[in-house]
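W.,

You were right to be curious about this one. When I first looked at the sequence I had no strong expectations either way, so I just let the prediction run and decided to look at it fresh. Below is the sequence, 71 residues in total, followed by the output.
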Amino acid sequence: NPPLWGTVKYLSEKIPKDTSSKVRINRDLYSHEKIMETAPTLPDFALSLKPDEYQLPSVDSSWNEENVNGG
């Protein structure tokens, strides 16, 4: 492979450094212990899961007829 120079050399050195830095930062910020430590406590509230009243529509008369086409 030819030697790297210019912009390609700069990027080939910068990208791994930035990536490893971001991985380290994210690992620290989002570690499981840290997430569990900073999780807020939820307020107590009463759940009310009562469905709305609903009445089914009447059945269409075509459902009660035998197969009209004879098929």
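Here's what jumped out at me. The mean pLDDT is 75. And, maybe more interesting for your project: The CA atoms of residues 55 and 67 lie 28 Å apart.

Coffee later to discuss?

I.
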